[in-house]
Amino acid sequence: xxxxxxxxxxxxxRLNVLEASETALCPVCHQPLSAERxxxxxxxxxxxxxxxxxxxxxxxxxxxxxxxxIEQLSERARALESDIKRQESALNQRLGTLQVKLxxxxxxxxxxxxxxxxxxxxxxxxxxxxxxxSARQTMSECERQAIALNYDQEWHDALRKELSDLQEGRLxxxxxxxxxxxxxxxxxxxxxxxxxxxxxxxxxxxxxAQLPALDxxxxxxIELARQADQRRAERDQKRAIxxxxxxxxxxxxxxxxNLEGIRKRAQELTTQISELSEDEKLYQELQQAFGKRGVxxxxxxxxxxxxxxxxxxxxxxxxxxxxxxxxxxxxxKKSGEGVIETLDILISDELGQRDYALYSGGESFRVxxxxxxxxxxxxxxxxxxxxxxxxxxxxxxxxxxxxxxRLVEAINAVQQCFDLILVVTxxxxxxxxxxxxxxxxxxxxxxxxxTVR
Length: 453
Known about the structure:
By secondary structure, this protein is mainly alpha-helical. The protein has helices spanning 2-20, 35-128, 133-147, 153-290, 295-319, 361-382, 401-413; strands at 324-332, 339-349, 352-354, 389-393, 420-424, 438-442, 448-452.
């Protein structure tokens, strides 16, 4: 559904562009569209968006079906796991019992073989009369000598010595006799061991006969375990798909909620736009009234004649009536169609009207000075006051010698218009240009001393 979401966003973006655009441009190729083509594209995008919504609903249904299948597979997998664990436990217990019995059977077989070998050795000794050989030879010699007995003391002593030696042979014979007496019991025990060994051997054969079936069962259980692992993997995979579908469903639900909020906000904004449209009309009227063609233009039109008169009066005093200026607030467009708002200063003298750049430095300075002083007088009158004092603070610092001379001439020319002209400067050579001086000097103690001359 990520692809569906991306496609939906793209289509919604294109549809918004088409609906919001006033120039009817294609959102893909950015080419102009006719009204019919624009309407067709809007309908096509709306249809595609509806198809995407249908795909989302189908995906949600598939998600629910997959959830049911996953639950069934999970139950089946849990049952298989329980059965496998139970059978594995029984098989492991049975296998341990068989291993113990098999070990005991091998030990019994080894003991039976050892007893059989001992019995064969004893039977061979009995058959060959190979026991107590020395004692038997001594007894034979005694019997032979007894027949031809011819008693002698030395012989008798020797015989007694030999008899003492034969005691050991008698003990061996007793032990042999005891062994012969115990032989049936040993043989019986041997037979019992052999019978037990045979029984165990038969049991081993029986167990070995059962091994193929057990191997088959183990293989079956291994296959069941593999199938259980496979189903578990399928369950995990479907669970992951289910979780992804749930996340996608939650995301789409959030988007739907956001869209609902946006729709409500759009309705509110539509209402606000309707209300603000009336305010906009009012503000447009105010903008026109207070724009450059409204009240400010009217004020400028009313102020320019007075400012022009004041400036020309000052210029007439500074130039003996040779120069004057005129303000022009409109001029024709270069195309010749209509006029544009402007504020041009046209300067003329006895030679006629010329461009500002064609006047000399002194003439340009007089025009600038007259215009600034006239503007100050005009603002003072509009404020309801009279401008009777002119203060020029450091007005000479940026001028050369010729410029300073022109400024002094301009001040002298307009001095009748003011009760007081105060010039502040640090240039020493200008002191003699004015009749009255106020000299300010700093004192060593931090104060200042004023001297009027």
